[in-house]
């Protein structure tokens, strides 16, 4: 029965993998997606991709077996937004990947234990380890993607502020300045360019500028972006000069960027200390002292 179960589960995993590859590679795009991409590439961000459609089909039965509460779903959706996945089905796709790995890894470890002729008691242990890896691995990758994206946005924001100062002082309004800065950042800072495109898109479809900017801060999760959004909202609400406020904020942001670079350079010496003391210094000591140690061994051996 154990062999039959392993063979059956392995066949199911292989079949699901082949079907997923077919849906992802061979399934044509929907007509709505094609029309949105032909009209404006930024509008395609709100449409489902073949990957999310495939993940939705896989996740639907899995989510019925392991339901997700509304609070956890909202937290997961926020984390996915900060990682750059703006689709409404991104949480379902992530849930499908997580549940699939929680099933696939135990089956894989059990199959390896069976092929290596391990004791049946070890199957449960390794299956539990595989399930834990399948649960925490997607979340770890998601955290790393969020940290990397926030770092890229943080470094790109200083350049965006300089462009914003130039655009506002040239006579453009705030909406036109945001649109212009987003276009200029398309080739150098793709993450911030995409976020500014979404801000401009929300304003064009009728959402207020304050709500669009607040959504921008929530999607990124960067403290500097929250400060910039609060600055723009206050300047717009109280009628103060946006150009002066953005210039002061750009100067302070440039100073913070230089301080972060200096801090990273000072940390580099400390980070290099561990590999130097662990790998380089023992080799140097061995090369220097090995001939003397060999001579002493020969000397005491002859005595």
Keywords:
Receptor-associated Protein; 303 residues; mainly alpha; flat
Indicate the mean pLDDT.
Answer: 77
**Sheet with the most strands, sense and barrel status:** none
* Overall number of domains: 2
- Give the % helix: over 70%
Spatial shape: flat
Characterization of this structure:
The protein is built from eleven helices and no strands. The radius of gyration is 28 Å and the shape is flat. It has helices at 2-25, 31-39, 50-65, 70-83, 90-115, 120-169, 174-184, 190-204, 209-220, 223-238, 242-302. It folds into two domains: 2-118, no CATH class; 152-258, Receptor-associated Protein (Up-down Bundle), CATH 1.20.81. It is an all-alpha fold and 303 residues long.
Compact overview of the structure:
The protein is mainly alpha-helical and 303 residues long. It has eleven helices and no strands.
